[in-house]
Amino acid sequence: MSTDTVTRDKWDRAARSLDLMTGYGPEWRWGPAKREIFARMRPGGKILFLALGTGIDIKNFPPGCDITAIDISPNMVERARDRVAAYPGNMSAHVMDVHAMDFADESFDQIFTSCTFCSVPNPVDGLKSLHRVLKSGGELHMFEHTGSHVFPFNLMMKLMTPLASRFGPELDRDTVANVNAAGFQITQVNNVFLDTVKTIHAVK
Amino acid sequence: MESRWYFIVGDLAANILVATAAVALSTWLIGGAWGMVPGMLAGMLIGMALALFPFFGLLSIALGVMEVMTPCMLSGMIGGMIGGMLDLTGAEIWSWGSGTGVTVLALVYALNATISGPQRTES
After folding, report:
1. What is the pLDDT at residue B54?
2. Which of A34, A80, B8, B104 could covalently link to A55 via disulfide, CB atoms 3.0 to 4.6 Å apart?
C-alpha cells in the first residue's frame, strides 16, 4: 500500500507536542461535544476510529466496544500505545493511510473521526475510502473543525491555511460538502462553535 | 453557547490582551503617520500577525483552538487598525484595546448563540 509520506512526516514531527497543544484547553473546550458523539459507539459492532493521534480521545470512549484505530503517523501510534492498552474493551491501533486502507469492503458498522478531515490531503477520496469499508446502513460520526461561511472568519481561515497547513491542519475545508460528495447521506450537522467546529452524522 | 466561567473569563482576558497589544504595537510603529488608509491596512496586518505570534500559540494551550483563534484574530485586526490610524497615549491604548476586545468577544458570542446548534441537513 502506498503512503503519503509528506503527511506522515508532518504528523510524525507534530507527535511530540500534540498532547501539550491539544490536551488541555482544546480538550476541556471540546470535551462535552466529543463525549456526546463518542457515546454513540455501540458495543457489539465493529468500529473504525481515525485519526488516533496520541490517543487523547480514548478517555471519552464508552467501555466495552470493539474499536480499530488508525493514524498515518507511526510516532503518533507509538505514543498512543499505553492509552490503547488501557482502554476497557477491545482496541487495536494501526499505522495506515486513509487513502490506502487495507480493510475489506463493508468491514465496519460505525466509523468515527476526530479532527481528521482537516488534514487528509484529498478529503473526498479519503471519505470515499471510509464509504467503501462501511457496511450498508452503517454510520459515520465526525467531530471536525472546518472553514466558515461567515465573513470575516471565512477570509481569515483562507489567509491562514497556507501557513497552518505547513505544520498541521487546513482551516478552510468544507467537510459537510465533502461528506456529501463522497456518497454519504447526512442525517445531522451540529455547529459546536460558530460554523467552524461541528459534529457531522451520516449514513451509507 | 459557552457557559463555563473558566472559558468566559479566559476569552475576555485573551481578547483584551490581544487587542491592547495590537493597538500598542501599531500605534508605536505607525501611530497615524502613514495616513488613514495605509495606516489602517498596515495596522490590520500587524494586529493579525500579533494575534498569531505569539498569542495564539500560548493562549490556545489553555483556552482552545478555534474558540481562541477566531475572536482573537479579529480583536488583533481591529486593534491594529485603530493603532495604525491614531496616535494614542498609554491610557488611550488601554481604553481602545479593552473596548475592542470586549466588543469583539461580545459579537462573537452573540453570533455563536445564533448559529451554533443543529443545522438543516443538506442531503
Report:
1. 87
2. A80
Candidate CATH numbers 2.160.10.10, 3.40.190.10, 3.20.20.80, 3.40.50.150; the one for domain A5-203: 3.40.50.150
Domain ranges of chain A: 5-203
- Mutation target to probe the A interface, by most A beta carbons within 10 A, among B11, B45, B70 is B70
d(CA B81, CA B88): 12
Residues A91-108 have a mean pLDDT of 96
Give the number of beta-carbon pairs within 8 Å between A and B: 86
Cβ within 8 Å of residue A58, ≥6 positions away: A80, A83, A84, A86, A87, A91
**Is residue A3 predicted with pLDDT exceeding 80?**
no
Q: Could you give the CA distance from residue A157 to residue A11 in angstroms, rounded to a whole number?
A: 21
The alpha carbon of B81 is separated from its chain's Cα centroid by a whole number of angstroms, namely: 11
- Give the position of cell 484529498: A122
Among chain A residues, the shortest Cα distance to B59 is held by A25
Q: Quick: pLDDT tens for B79-100.
A: 999 999 999 999 999 999 999 9
